[in-house]
Amino acid sequence: RLSIELRSQTLTSIVAMGEKDTSILCLFDVDGTLTVPRKVITEEMKATIAALRKKVTIGVVGGSDLVKINEQLDGKATDSFDFTFGENGLSAFKGTEELESQSFLKFIGEENLKRLVNWTLRYIADLDIPQKRGTFIEFRNGMLNISPIGRNCSGEERNAFEEFDKGAAIRTTMVAAMEKEFADLGLKFSIGGQISFDVFPVGWDKTYCLQHVKKHGDFKKIHFFGDKTYEGGNDFEIFSSPETEGHTVTSWQDTQAQLKELFGV
Known about the structure:
Helices cover 41% and strands 20% of the residues. It is an alpha/beta fold. Strands 5-4-3-2-1-10-11 form a seven-stranded mixed beta sheet, sandwiched between helices. Strands 6-7-9-8 form a four-stranded antiparallel beta sheet. A hairpin with a 2-residue loop joins strand 4 (91-94) and strand 5 (97-98). The radius of gyration is 19 Å and the shape is globular. The two termini are 22 Å apart.
């Protein structure tokens, strides 16, 4: 990837112009990029994003559904972003205009979905981890979200599981087992956030949103900002795509600092 210094030089003319450059799109992950995981965006970050929108086109792409994305972005994301992509783009908006959507259930079928769910519940039942709560599987329009501890855990329990998982590799091990068990279904397993991983058809990762971008925009450069950009993370595919220039961030504050460096906001 290009260094920040080189990217800054490339974008100096944009900042100097003071006009919106509609040939540039900045796409953002949510958790760990625009917000603390599962928390609401700060007023400071909202101001940065609003300032950036005056300079370039901006979009948000998350693995969560639009309800959760809206909660974290403190209102309707469609009011603050030019493009809003829930579930990696399977739910999509350009401004407030809803774009075409896709369905995980249609793709996989009821019998294979039951097979997935039954196997997952048996596997989690046998897991020996410090805590288990509820909502181990969340069925979304475009994917399954699987959480060994359960999505009903508290913020404190969420943080504790994340630390435990770094050493115990619960999610990594479970993903490897599912890749073997369901090799015939053409599925991708992608770890994201603190407590869960997503299951979706191959090609339905965050690069899925780029087909909407290409169809409904004409961009010379697409920047992507995300925190899970390592292989196996849910930002990896779009970060490493030849269609984007990827930027790894460590927090919303780091995103803010990089945007200041690159775009002067």
